[in-house]
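User: My collaborator sent over this chain with a note saying "see what the structure looks like." That's all I know about it. Can you take a look?
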Amino acid sequence: MDDLNFKCNNPGSVKFGNFINYYQFHPPDERISLLPTNIWDHLLLKDKVDILDVGCNAGDLTKTLDDFFTNQIGLKTLNVLGVDIDPLLIQRAQEKFQNINFRCMDIMSDDWAIGNNSCYDIIFCFSITMWIHLNNGDEGLKTFLKRMCDLSEILVIEPQPWKCYKNALKRYRLGKGDFPKFKELQIRQNVEQEIEVLISNNGFKKLTETSRTKWGRKLLIFRKTL
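Assistant: Without extra context I'll predict from the sequence alone. Here is the result:
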C-alpha cells in the first residue's frame, strides 16, 4: 500500500509501496467509512466467510476490516488473511494482531499460493495495482487481476490514477533509479478504466463505486457473475 502525497513528512522511496509508517498518514477508518453496508447480506447465510487483504502492510486496515464485518455486518465466523511482500511489515502485523492470520508472500511469483482456499468470499486490494503495474508491466497487471478474479467472489479494488504513477516515478528516481517496466507501459492515462474493463472481462460485474478519498482514490466493488 502506498501514499505519495504526505503533506507533513516525506514518505521516502520504496519499490513495492511498502511504506513503513503508512497508517500514520491514512488511518484505516477513512477507507472503512466508504464501504457500503447493504451488499453483504448474502454472506450472513454462510457458515464461514473467508476474506483476503492483499498488500496488507502492517495489518491495521486488515484488523479494521475484521471489525467491520464482525460488528457492523454481523458475520459470525470470519477467517481473515493479510498478505504482503515485505517480511518486516508482516512481522509487525503478526505482533500487533495475533487473532488474524498474516503471511509474507509475493503474489506475482510463479509458485505463489494463498492458504488452502480455492476461492475467497471477498478480496481487498487497496492501492496496490500501481505497484504491480510498475514492477511487472501491462502483462503483469493483467495476470494479477486474473488471479484475483479467479480467487474471489467479490473483489474490492482501489486503483491508483495515472498521476500517482508520475509521483512514484519521481520519488523512486531520486533514491533508487527507475522502474524498468515504466517506459513499456501501454496502459497509462486511462488506467482506472482499463482496470475496470480487465476485471469485467474476467467474468465480474461492478456492483458499485464509492466517492473518492481525500487522496483522490475510489473503491470499485465487483461481484462474479453466475
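A starting point for your reply to your collaborator: Residues 2-11 have pLDDT under 50 and may be disordered.
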